[in-house]
Write a structure and sequence with these properties.
The chain has one domain: Four Helix Bundle (Hemerythrin (Met), subunit A). By secondary structure, the chain is an all-alpha fold. The longest helix is centred in the first third of the chain and has 39 residues. It contains 7 helices and no strands. About 65% of the residues lie in helices and about 0% in strands. Helix 3 runs antiparallel to helix 4.
Length: about 230
Amino acid sequence: MQGKRFIPRSRAGTLAAVSMATLALLLYLVYLVLAFGLRTLIQVRRTGSTGFHGLGGRPGSAEWIAGVGFTVALLVGAAAPVLALLDVVEPIAALDTTAVHIAGLVLAVGGIGLTFYAQVAMGASWRIGVDPAERTQLVTSGPFALVRNPIFAAMLPTALGLTLLVPSWVALTGLAGLVVALELQVRVVEEPYLLRAHGEAYARYAARVGRFVPGVGRLDVLRTRNS
């Protein structure tokens, strides 16, 4: 009697790891195409500008470190599934389970969709980086009515989801680097710039709306000024 072909556990595990790494890499490419490629194209057609302002600050400054850290974190995150496909790094056994992979897929797909939605909701004010001389409209509606930084807030579950698909030390390093870079970018670059550009309007908005999570990270700028 001819039974079903038996695949050794080690080989089955290798096939599963390759499948997850391939899926993570494809999702990462979709993420980059939507969040940077398509959104840039929309911006150019709408305003004539790409919205890219590059790295700001002098080398070694907090602003410069935030920009470099963000770029490096994205590259490390992209390297994780590539290294997994090349069998250079092994997944962390405790996280390399079906349940974790499913959670990662849900977070990644949802995060990609939310990132692009928040980018589109920003309209003509969308940009990457800060030009101190630029003055754009302060967006406070849509997802920006829930949190002040919905694009960055959506990037975090996206990165977490991609990490859970290929849970290696490389992926975790990229995730940690992204968290630090986004915190620096928002606290040291974005918030001071928006406060200078929009004054009391941003101060009132920041006192009402949370930073990454609704109600969490609100700024009491007006009280600080008056004290």
